[in-house]
Fold this sequence. Notes:
heterodimer, B: alpha+beta, seven-stranded mixed beta sheet, four-stranded mixed beta sheet
Amino acid sequence: MTAPVITGGAPGAPRTPDTPAIPGVSGTRATLRRNFRRGVWRVLRRKPSRIVGVAILGVFAFMGIFGPLLYPARLPRDDNALYAAPSLAHPFGTDFEGTDVLALVITGARYVLLTALVTAVITVALGTAVGLFAGFRRGRWDTVLMRITDMKLTIPALPLLLVLSTVWKFTSAIEMGLVLGLLGWGGVARAVRAQTLSLRERGFIEAARGLGLSSGHIVGRELLPSMAPFIAMNMLIAVTGAVYAQVGLFFLGVLPFDANNWGVMLNLAVFGGGALTTTTALPYMLAPLLAILLLTLGIVLVVDAMDEIFNPRLRED
Amino acid sequence: MKRLAAAAVVLCLAAVTAACGGNADSSAGGVFTTIDALKPGIDANAPINPYNPKGNAFRGYNAEWLGWTKNHLTDPNQFYPGVAQSWQIAPDQSSITLRLHPGGKWSDGEPITAKDVKFSIGLAYTQGGTAYALDPSAAGTASDIKIVDDRTIKITQAAKNPSSSFVRSVMETVIVPEHVWRGVLPADFWQRLKLAQSDAPGAEVARAGITSLADKVISFAPPRDVSAGPFVLKRVNPGEALLVKNKNFYNAANVAADQVRILNYTGNEQVWNYLVSGRLDSAPFTAVPAGVMRRITETPGNAVVRGYSPVSEGLAFNQSRKPYDNVHVRRALAYLIDRRQVTKVASPEGGTASLTTSGLHQQAAKAWLGDGLAALDPYRHDPARAANELRAAGMKKVAGRWTMPDGGPWKMTINVPASFSDWLAGAKAVTSQLNDAGIDAEVVTTADYPLYLEEMAAGKYDLGFWLVALGPAPYNIFQRLYGAQNGWQLFGGRLRHVAPGTEGNWMGGAEVIDVKGAGRVNPGELAVRLNSVPEAEQRRIVSTLARTANQDLPVIQLWDYVNTQVVNTTRFTGFPGNESDALRLTSGVWLQLGMVKRKSHI
């Protein structure tokens, strides 16, 4: 596992004032990056399902970023095609106003994904910070932070959200993500603390302490990288949790109406269109469900790949 | 071996017989299955108490009124017999004399007497209501209750402030057995009531004392059901209430069902599924999407019955908010909204696009206004006129979007409760149309209906969906436009107008309006007069108020509801037909009147 000594930067890379002057160090990092990328590619290729997972997430990312740009600001409606059956023009039929359901799913992806991203970032950032700090410092800090975490874990999120929705309309995805994130960090904090308590007793941490390295260095450079895979996977899983939570709230009808929100679509398909009673509104219900299913599938497949990328012991070669 | 086989056959037959007989309630002939729209969410632990909102007393089945109000376009004082067999209303509606069914008995065999009626009226006083208001100066209250004989009772209206709602209010009194409920009212109740209805010292304390009995009445739990209706509650569980025929009911011989099962439901989709599976013999009005209705009608025996429903859906303005204080803006919106398209999207099966805005359901409008209906502005979809109206209001169009007169953004927000799917679809259809026309409009939902009404009353919304035209009494129709929500408070027989944003006045309309051809009109004052004037004068007032509503537009009427019900003729026949005046009554009333017949092969 000795890294080959490379005496230059990446081929063709211009040297700038910021480029480190020590060729050995920069070359090693470039090589590590290159090796990492190759490793990732190798892990992905090993199981084609993982490439499918990445492709799915890529499609959703595209939908989130560019989806609304593909359609006019106000989606066209057709009074003569209310709840139209699937066709070439409307692969998932139309809704109660005669609007293309696929267009609704695509344009609605941004809110759902942005909320999920904000939730995941907050969940992971807050959970990791609290867990690392509590686990590393132990003592009173640990006691106080874990009691706060326990209190947070005992608060049932859904009833609280239902109450909150009566006073807060959650009109923006960031607001929604913020609230879901603030309600969801407890589990991550507990898990990260447990990992930290385990790692801090390991030899390399002891060695770092013996070398007199600062706490910041030990946490930032020793502990955090060791937990990076775990944190990254938690982040992806938090995305699915956030999607379920927000779609569930919109489905229950407690959050603001937005025709292209996936949860609102499900609500209207079931309670307005009778999708569980007749097939007329079934495609209208299935489209957002399929989107959620695909997104979850993509995340699960990517998490599977990440597990192997970050955990060399799982590699088969 | 043969013996063993024979024993096995006998055992199998026994098992099959047991299986068939195990659910006798559901397989027995004469079981009528329905839902009670007044009681979504059956509570098995609730008392058998008609005053309790969750009580297991079902109107028309085991909860009986004195009489059942017919669904008449203009006359609210037509009834079918209930506990009363007949009634005599004084020409000026100053009194009503009720004659009970001769030989009428409670389900436990005790006779139903005038004393029971008087006692029930005593209970009604604890709950309040038009005829039973404790305030001596309130309109339409009963001043005297006189037992003429064992089966006859006369109730007289206070002469000071009469109301045409008095008779209906009396007839809609639920009657309970005194011998079961006796302990709920104190022995000196009628003395207390007399004092409460006077101006004597101590009247206020007496009023408070009677009002304080309300909770005791609501929470009273009779040990068993003693019913004056055609059915008696046998048992109730979270899934359904089972009622059996009351053999002592005066018309028991003509009650076609031996048992009634009232199924629990918490959402419309459950009702749809019951109907699709053919389980319900009848279902009252439920908002049904077109596709589901098609599926329902495919079920053998299911048939759709439609009739008049004095309810319309309106888009109501908070006129204390800009720019909705400007009548030109309201008119512009009326011209911009294509009501046919909105109705097609929102209520294709249960509504018909409003002909115009008059405050009246279109069928009632034809009956009340006659040719006057055609003289009203129909507000046909006309974007050009809408643009002219907006310009008249000073609104500006910048880069294809309408702005406020000062150039600031105009963001129109329509509020609806999230749980009403037809309202939600309607509001969305309206905003889509307005956005197409250059008005930035959006729908905002509120978690549930009680919260929606609370926030609306607090003046938190610019616009919201609001039921109007709640007839048939003309006062009830117009108080939705020119009542407490628009500032007219009727208290102690005196009418006053309160400022917008105060005391529940969220509509914020002007107290006096210049109406073309009618001069300066105080619509709230006119609406209250509808309670006490003869029919000819009522017609004049209704005409004036309709023109006022049409010109001033406190709401834009979107669609008029159609009472769309589903009946199943597989097991029973004789259901009320299209436009029947019994369509707004429960199927319990149809059964007790002997309208519904059992199919001979059942």
